[in-house]
């Protein structure tokens, strides 16, 4: 049985939300580069050593930026997949949740790299986490509808 997918008229909103994640990645890159420079951690070192981070708050914040960026990269593919799939059936809701995910991930980055350190990421993690779970549930339901031929 062939399935014909009709992209909803408002699917452009889904694509706009997906595109926002590329800019969040760019925010991560700039923030990490700024903190790398401030901490004088040379390339190719991915992180400051434990000793460097204990002595220099900039080195510690650089490590936080690196970890926030790695966490973003770990989560972006599944969030994008869920956004693009759920947007086939729920385009406006998916777009809003996708944009919410991007805002949450940006708050996560700036909270994590603030003077609060890892504790500063909690608010952004909560926002992004709720949006992410919602997108995944909507994607599962959309997939079910496609498999069931509904």
TrEMBL record:
GO cellular component, one term: endoplasmic reticulum
Keywords: Membrane, Transferase, Transmembrane, Transmembrane helix
Cell compartments where the protein resides: Membrane
Membrane topology: Multi-pass membrane protein
Keyword Transferase: yes
Regions that span the bilayer: 12-30, 79-103, 123-147
Protein name (database record): ER glutathione S transferase
